[in-house]
From TrEMBL:
Matching Gene3D superfamilies: Vaccinia Virus protein VP39
Protein name, UniProt field: 2-phytyl-1,4-naphtoquinone methyltransferase
This enzyme's EC code(s): 2.1.1.329
UniProt similarity note: Belongs to the class I-like SAM-binding methyltransferase superfamily. MenG/UbiE family.
MF (Gene Ontology): 2-phytyl-1,4-naphthoquinone methyltransferase activity
InterPro entries for this protein: MenG, SAM-dependent_MTases_sf, UbiE/COQ5_MeTrFase, UbiE/COQ5_MeTrFase_CS
Catalytic function, reaction form: demethylphylloquinol + S-adenosyl-L-methionine = phylloquinol + S-adenosyl-L-homocysteine + H(+)
GO biological process: methylation; phylloquinone biosynthetic process
Keyword Endoplasmic reticulum: no
Organism, as annotated: Chrysosporum bergii ANA360D
Pathway per the UniProt entry: Cofactor biosynthesis; phylloquinone biosynthesis
Length: 229
């Protein structure tokens, strides 16, 4: 099953950034900027971007931590990591980012290593959400924060209906034009299974995070879970 998820992201890699820009009308950049702000990353920090994909959040973290800091971008899709690396090559000056192919459920870092972390659209895709949160808790320093951005099911029924319509009638047909119907059709059922913001707060507390909150954004269609160790 891990392999199936990795294959989905390897297949979407060539069009991933372009489709996110088109389908969110550029809004995903704003959601990612808010996520990095809520991670409270500071100049000189060592930061983690979990499930980094093509690196949007990692690049934003790198700007925040500056030349004295370091960012680790971790993902298990070699094709998306290659896109991230190619993007990094075209940056001047080169961002202080190390790209690592690894599983979010078994991170290759010592305990208490990171000052801050982000995760964008990764938590909904991991096979074991509590274990992923527990790994994140393990690698953060005491007091460090992480901000986790993902889709959310709006509590307002009209917004939920709009979200479902947008995913099935705009996102999937456009992806179908690019031969990626099955890959984008996966978003909707994965969102149906995904814990609500309130449930995510409970899961984060269970693995030991001391301060936890969930911010609904984009009319509750997206959310950011912010946790502190
Ligand atoms: C950056 C975004 C999604 C990343 C993403 C997450 C996944 O789990 C995937 C799974 C399989 C294939 C691709 C992805 C994937 O790209 C969020 C923005 C992109 C969305 C496709 C757009 C969704 C828009 C909202 C439902 C409604 C937005 C309304 C308005 C236009 C702002
Ligand atoms: C939708 S993409 C998000 C990419 C990026 N964070 C962003 O916001 O654009 C989800 C990413 O999670 C990665 N992923 C899913 N499960 C993973 C796991 N168990 N370990 C590492 N990466 C994983 C996928 O390979 C993919 O790159």
């Amino acid at each position: 099953m891990n392999q199936e998820i990795r294959d989905i992201f390897d297949r979407v890699a060539p069009v991933y950034d372009q489709l996110n820009n088109w389908l969110s009308l550029g809004q995903h950049s704003i959601w990612k900027e808010m996520t990095v702000k809520w991670s409270a990353a500071q100049p000189g920090n060592t930061c983690l971007d979990l499930c980094c994909g093509s690196g949007d959040l990692a690049f934003r973290l790198a700007r925040r931590v500056g030349t004295r800091g370091r960012v680790y971008g971790v993902d298990f899709s070699p094709k998306l990591l290659a896109v991230a690396q190619a993007r990094a090559q075209s940056h001047y000056p080169q961002p202080a980012i190390s790209w690592l192919e690894a599983d979010a459920l078994d991170l290759p870092f010592d305990a208490n290593y990171f000052d801050a972390a982000t995760m964008g659209y990764g938590l909904r895709n991991v096979m074991d959400i509590p274990r992923s949160l527990a790994e994140l808790h393990r690698v953060l320093k005491p007091g460090a924060k992480a901000a986790i951005l993902d889709f959310h099911r709006p509590r307002n029924q009209q917004m939920r209906a709009f979200q479902q319509w947008y995913l099935s009638s705009i996102v999937v047909p456009l992806a179908q034009q690019l031969g990626l119907k099955k890959e984008y059709a996966y978003i909707s059922p994965s969102l149906d299974r995904f814990p609500t913001g309130e449930e995510q707060v409970g899961l984060a507390r269970q693995v030991g995070f001391t301060w936890v909150t969930h911010y609904p954004i984009a009319n509750d269609m997206m959310g950011v879970l912010v946790v502190s160790k």
